[in-house]
């Protein structure tokens, strides 16, 4: 059962950088290997399942991110009502987990979504990240999993200078502090 | 610090990976028939050579997949990276 808790509830603005926590967002982890599983996700969500590494696909309601050859991360575009989230989770569970096609795990309360906007967001991330953002920032919809200040994150390049960053709840306050501290010097 | 070409995600910094020791160690088919010394040999003894070594690595902070790598331990030059289950491209 979903129980949305927001640890940050804040928005900060610096020169050319805006950082805000966006919650509650529905987030579901999907794992499976078979072709039927991939087809089923696409059918249930009306979305093309991205099979190429470091890519994503989107429709008006959801974004589906490639995490590994047998793992995907689904999140909603907009804030979502708990009842709607439960309906979708149950639907996917019944169609995928129950028939043993793969696994469906609701991770809405496990990951925190932070939105970063502005022309200097990549400078901010590069201050504590080993990932090379040169190609990433040019490709809309690109996805990467990497480390920022030694913290595991998933980054989705939603639009030009508009990123959604996912961090585990227990690290979110620390990453939030680090980002705000670093943004002051950029 | 060096770059590793993950067979799934592409080129990434070494800090995203964790080393998993020597690769291509086969589990004995009949462990119960082995002596303690033979079992210890399989379980604990690993090569730690200076030179080209076959290793297992995990992209721990990325796709979390295991893969194999042929690396020269003396200079960190990576000769090949290949997926689990695939044959090594070098002997």
Write a concise keyword list for the protein shown above.
heterodimer; A: 186 residues; alpha+beta; Gyrase A, domain 2; 6-stranded antiparallel beta sheet; 5-stranded antiparallel beta sheet; 26% helix; 34% strand; globular; B: 91 residues; mainly beta; Folate-binding fold; 4-stranded antiparallel beta sheet; two-stranded antiparallel sheet; 1 helix; 6 strands; elongated
Report on the structure:
The complex is a heterodimer of chains A (186) and B (91). By secondary structure, chain A is of the alpha+beta class. Chain A has a single domain (12-183), classed as Probable tRNA modification gtpase trme, domain 1 (Gyrase A, domain 2). Helices cover 26% and strands 34% of the residues of chain A. Chain A has helices spanning 35-45, 82-97, 121-126, 169-183; strands spanning 11-14, 17-21, 27-31, 56-58, 62-68, 71-76, 103-106, 111-117, 143-148, 151-159, 162-168. In chain A, the strands form two sheets. In chain A, strands 1-2-8-11-10-9 form a six-stranded antiparallel beta sheet. A five-stranded antiparallel beta sheet of chain A has the order 4-5-6-3-7. In chain A, helix 1 packs antiparallel against helix 2. The longest helix of chain A is centred in the middle third of the chain and has 16 residues, at 82-97. Chain B has 91 residues and is mainly beta. Chain B has one domain (3-83): Folate-binding fold (2-Layer Sandwich), CATH 3.30.2270. In chain B, 10% of the residues lie in helices and 37% in strands. Chain B has one helix and six strands. Chain B has one helix spanning 36-44; strands spanning 3-6, 10-13, 18-22, 52-58, 66-72, 77-83. In chain B, the strands form two sheets. Chain B has a four-stranded antiparallel beta sheet with strand order 3-4-5-6, with no helix packed on it. A two-stranded antiparallel sheet of chain B has the order 1-2. The mean pLDDT of chain B is 94. Classes of the chains: A alpha+beta (186), B mainly beta (91). Chains A and B meet through strand 9 of A and strand 2 of B.
């Amino acid at each position: 059962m979903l129980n949305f808790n927001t640890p940050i509830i804040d928005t900060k603005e610096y020169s050319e950088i805006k950082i805000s926590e966006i919650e509650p967002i529905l987030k579901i982890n999907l794992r499976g290997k078979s072709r039927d599983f991939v087809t089923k996700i696409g059918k249930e969500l009306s979305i093309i399942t991205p099979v190429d590494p470091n890519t994503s696909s989107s429709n008006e309601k959801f974004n589906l991110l490639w995490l590994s050859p047998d793992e995907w991360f689904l999140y909603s575009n907009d804030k979502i009502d708990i009842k709607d989230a439960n309906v979708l989770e149950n639907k996917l569970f019944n169609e995928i987990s129950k028939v043993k096609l793969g696994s469906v795990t609701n991770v809405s309360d496990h990951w925190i979504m932070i939105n970063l906007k502005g022309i200097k967001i990549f400078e901010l991330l590069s201050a504590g990240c080993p990932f090379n953002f040169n190609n990433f920032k040019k490709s809309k919809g690109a996805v990467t999993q990497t480390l920022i200040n030694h913290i595991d994150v998933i980054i989705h390049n939603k639009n030009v200078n508009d990123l959604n960053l996912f961090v585990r709840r227990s690290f979110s306050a620390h990453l939030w502090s680090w980002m705000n501290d670093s943004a002051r010097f950029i | 610090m060096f770059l590793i070409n993950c067979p799934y995600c592409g080129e990434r910094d070494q800090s995203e990976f964790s080393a998993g020791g020597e690769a291509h160690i086969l589990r004995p088919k009949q462990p119960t028939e082995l002596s303690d010394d033979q079992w210890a040999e399989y379980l604990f003894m690993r090569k730690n050579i200076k030179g080209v070594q076959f290793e297992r690595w995990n992209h721990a902070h990325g796709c979390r997949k295991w893969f194999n790598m042929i690396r020269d331990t003396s200079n960190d030059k990576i000769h090949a990276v290949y997926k689990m289950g695939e044959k090594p491209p070098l002997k």
